[in-house]
Fold this sequence. Notes:
Elements: E1 2-9, H1 29-44, E2 51-55, H2 58-71, E3 79-81, H3 89-97, E4 105-110, H4 114-119, E5 136-142, E6 154-160
Parallel strand pairs: 1-4, 2-3, 2-4
Antiparallel strand pairs: 1-5, 5-6
Amino acid sequence: MKRTLVMIRHAKSSWANPLQSDFERPLNDRGLADAPVMGKRLAVAGLKPDLVISSTALRTRQTSTLIAAEVGYDAGNMQWEEKLYHCVPAVFDEVIMEVPDEVKTVYMVAHNPGITEFVNQLSPDFAVGNMPTCGMVGVHLDAEHWADFYAVKRKVFMFDYPKNDHDD
Length: 168
């Protein structure tokens, strides 16, 4: 069974308030503009999620909600995972292993540096030095269960980010 995972780094966040906690940093104007653009790109590509899993930090919640609106996903159905906040790659593995088998396409929205480290482990044919803000990496796998994620071959089919040239 073909399954699709789309890893998304949160959009550009604001550093306007130096006293604000990292967890509560919101998106800045560029981030608020980029997230819907990237959501439209996902919609045009026909990559509508069955499930969106997001870190609970404010900037990832905002990014997830803005992208969900563009792909027609009900934000009320998002799965919020506090453990995705600045996690190591092994945490992504844990979350993927818990995805219900009826889910065919999942988006996961999280942070650097863990997301860059994780996407660089997806396929020997793909590597990125730094996952850009609001960057997306899509991977296809043929597996009966999400728990088989590392037992099957994975193919990165998409790498996109806001400054990538498009005719948006």
